[in-house]
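Handoff note, outgoing to incoming analyst
You'll be picking up this chain. Sequence as last confirmed:
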Amino acid sequence: MRHPLIRLSAASVALLALASCAMMHHDTDEGSEALEHAGPWKALFDGGSTAAFRDWHGTTISPDWQVVDGMLTKSKPTEDLITRDQYGDFELTLDWKMGPGGNSGIFYRATEDADKIYWTAPEYQLLDDARHPDGRNPLTSAGASYGLYPAPRGIVKAANEWNSTRIVAKGNHVEHWLNGTKMVEFELFSPDWMAKFQASKFKDLPKWARAPRGFIGIQGDHDGVLALRNIRIREL
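Most recent structure output, in case you need it:
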């Protein structure tokens, strides 16, 4: 079937090109989501003080967490860390690198009314995808919403290379970003989210992902070397 020839003006062609570029740029542009009324950035870890954190169900920080060359590091399983303050709507950014086969995660809106932090809080997975068994499954790969929303392949860097993470939580809307790419985006308690929740290992945990406000957590109880830097947050 032949199609009629459509002639566009130079101006129309230019507009279409701009629109196309904008569409392609959207999913890799961390500034594409307008965050209105954002508060000032607050350093949770700036390379020196760990005063913003404490152990899960504790008052101090385990000595297994150390500050080395401006990095917050741990080299073996230890206590999970949480912030001393709680956050509801926020934007969190940090850099991290994992030793070979390492496994960790960032929890958000966690509460302490359970024995384990992952019984209450969603998790942004931190992982050496290439060497850890969890890396074979997109639902448990780096950048995933652990167990619910899969991460795309090829975004996380190799072991011992720095990655940049960004988490946005505003009301029920959540975004996970990794190295400038949006990994997952979802609405808490939407039909899609509820279906994934019911199919996950968290379905029998009544407090999981229910708190509108809670602690930011860093998983420490898994194997592997983990280093973090430039941890900062702002309330939305």
